[in-house]
Amino acid sequence: MAFARTCSVALVGVDGVIVEVQADLEPGVAAFALVGLPDKALSEARDRVRAAVVNSGEAWPQRKLTVGLSPASVPKSGSGFDLAVACAVLAAAERLDPSSIAELLIIGELGLDGRVRPVRGVLPSVLAAADAGYQRVVVAEQTAPEASLVPGVTVIGVRSLRQLVAVLTGASAPEEPPDPIAGRPDPLMAGLMLPSAGVRGLVDDKAARLDLADVAGQYEARRALEIAAAGGHHLYLKGPPGAGKTMLAERLPSLLPPLTQKEALEVTAVHSVAGLLPVGRPLIDTAPYCAPHHSTTMPAIVGGGSGLPRPGAVSLAHRGVLFLDEAPEFPVRVLDSLRQPLESGEVVIARSAGSLRLPARFLLCLAANPCPCGRHSRRGEGCECSPAMVSRYQGRLSGPLLDRVDLQVQVAPVTRIELMERDTTAENTETVAARVLAARERAAARLATTPWRTNAEVPGHELRTRWQLAPGALNDVARQLERGLLTARGLDRVLRVAWTVADLAGRDRPDQRDVRTALVLRTGVEQGLPLAERVYGRLGGIPAQRVGPVDEPPEGQSRSGRFEKPDCPDPESPGPPDRPDALGRSTRSGSAKRSGKRDQHRADEGGEA
Ligand SMILES: Nc1ncnc2c1ncn2[C@@H]1O[C@H](COP(=O)(O)OP(=O)(O)OP(=O)(O)O)[C@@H](O)[C@H]1O
Ligand SMILES: [Mg+2]
Fold it and tell me: Closest by alpha carbon to 245, among 273, 224, 230?
């Protein structure tokens, strides 16, 4: 019999499509034709496979050889079919028993010396194999741990074609050169570990070492981080250079709950296709963090490239955090390209051979200085930028993009005292992450009968009609709507955040202070500031007149709605008894008094919105 077949996998985005590899030998002049829509790298398989077979001590059949990859309509990229092609050829030449490879799924590139090299996307390939009912897969030894993540599949990891032939013929596997010395980069992984330009998929333990307790002060921003993590809300940190915006954003992934098994497989599949799986860590089970530089190209952000498409930053951040530092410096086209994944949780890349869908459900964190020189404030001191420059800089983040960002926070420069004094009350990541997890569970229980899992996903009209708020909760919102400070879409965002604030506080439904907190975080503007101040304040110079709310501020907040550092309990002081704040932390009423004074001072000098 001069015909044999086996199977391999073609990747379409992060989905695998089973491909049958058939080899046919006919009498005639020795030739090798490869058919079935191969790309350039795959066409070169002919030379690689021939050299690998010969260098593995096997005879190359001197007949007319045709290798077909079907279905022919699916475009096939890369070098992952080499090993399957070699096995099919050897079986057609009767060196292997065709039945020994007919039920196998084989993935791997061949070196000219016959060594088997790992390829990108082994996990999604093996997932597709398992779905199609394959029980045994052959992969390069280095990718065997990744392949064995898929339940119900037996993985055969091989180092060379000679080893595979020995396994299939029942001979003893030949010795191969030993593994590279531990800790040294494996030359076989060269090229696979290269991230796309400017994109860093943070999947090592660095995130776990960054602790929220390292951030001095910044109570409002820390609280916003917690709310963002609990509700899945996108976040915008605005402030002068060196205030700690990047520090804060880097600590966001570790506040997110650990990934479920399904999410971990999704995230690992994306990183596998990108060739970014760290050696020795086949499964990514914590939220990834991706922080592309603003010079990053469009394909590196959304994905693409020639050959086997690489997932971009939006997909590498899937189920984790996408951090755009110095956001206004990104090209407008790149920023606008985020709108589609923000809405749909996936990115669609159109190509001549058809469109690809890559998962892209991420938590967006933007950071920006107020102007190009970074020193702009309403008081205008020290800023070298003209009002037009400031306006142009801030305007680079388009309205439709910012409209999808629920939380906008001013990060004020950290004070000398906050920096120099060790703050023993600063909560660490573990404490905050535990609250985030509890809030997520509370939201998930409430949303159990719906298709949504986090508050950020719930559509506005559902939020307004399906769940009741506490009586009077919307008083402030009604005032803001009447005064034109809030749009209907803004209201939905406020409600979403208010539910998260309530979830964090362990309340069944949001009350007036939850909604007020959400309002401050939504607009980045203290309550009661008239629209004129927002407009003129942004363009610089005109001092603000506060039209303050008359209600007493809620506990844990100043009259302005800003968050204050929780007081340390002072054992010497007889003061008022502890009362828990919205998060159940210990506060004293003195905090509200002090913050009131501070806000008065800010208002006197034309305070910051
Ligand atoms: N709140 C803070 N607590 C402790 N250290 C801080 C804080 N803010 C800034 N720092 C110190 O300043 C350094 C710079 O902070 P970071 O890079 O986060 O600022 P940034 O706001 O992102 O600035 P830029 O706008 O220039 O990017 C940090 O590495 C840290 O050492
Ligand atoms: Mg920064």
Answer: 224
What per-residue confidence (pLDDT) applies to 380?
A: 56
Ligand closest in space to the Cα of 410? 1
Question: If you take atom 18 of ligand 1, which residue's CA is the nearest one?
Answer: 244
CB-side neighbour CA atoms (13 Å) of 150 = 26
Q: What digits encode the pLDDT tens for the residues 368-388?
A: 988 888 777 655 567 778 888
User: Looking at the predicted structure, is the pLDDT value of residue 62 above 70?
Assistant: yes
**Structure token pair of residue 456:** 């950020």
40 burial via Cβ count (<10 Å: 0-12, 13-18, 19+) = exposed
Q: Which of 210, 236, 166, 219 is nearest to 556 (CA)?
A: 219
C-alpha of residue 423 to centroid of ligand 2, in Å: 23
Query: Which residue type, as a one-letter code, is found at position 459?
Result: P
> 291 or 563: which carries more pLDDT confidence?
291
For the CA of 411, the nearest atom of ligand 1: 21
CA 17 – CA 72 distance, rounded (Å): 12
CB 119 within 8 A of CB 78: yes
Ligand 1 cavity residues, CB under 6 Å: 215-218, 239, 241-247, 325, 369, 414
Q: Mean pLDDT lowest for which of 246-260, 300-314, 360-374?
A: 300-314
Report the amino acid identity of residue 393. Answer: Y
| Atom number of ligand 1 nearest to Cα 368 | 25
In angstroms, the CA 86 to CA 101 distance is 11
Q: Specify the higher pLDDT residue, 576 or 325.
A: 325
Domains (ranges, CATH) in the chain? 3-189 (3.30.230.10), 201-215+226-420 (3.40.50.300), 458-604 (no CATH)
Ligand 2 geometric centre to CA of 241 (Å): 7
How many other C-beta atoms are found inside a 10 Å radius of the C-beta of residue 431?
A: 13
Provide long-range contacts, Cβ within 8 A and 24+ apart, for 414-419.
414/216, 414/217, 414/218, 414/243, 414/244, 415/217, 418/216, 418/217, 419/216, 419/217
Q: What is the edge-to-edge ordering of all strands in the sheet holding 235-238?
A: 201-202, 289-290, 321-324, 363-368, 235-238, 407-410
Q: Name the pTM for this structure.
A: 0.77
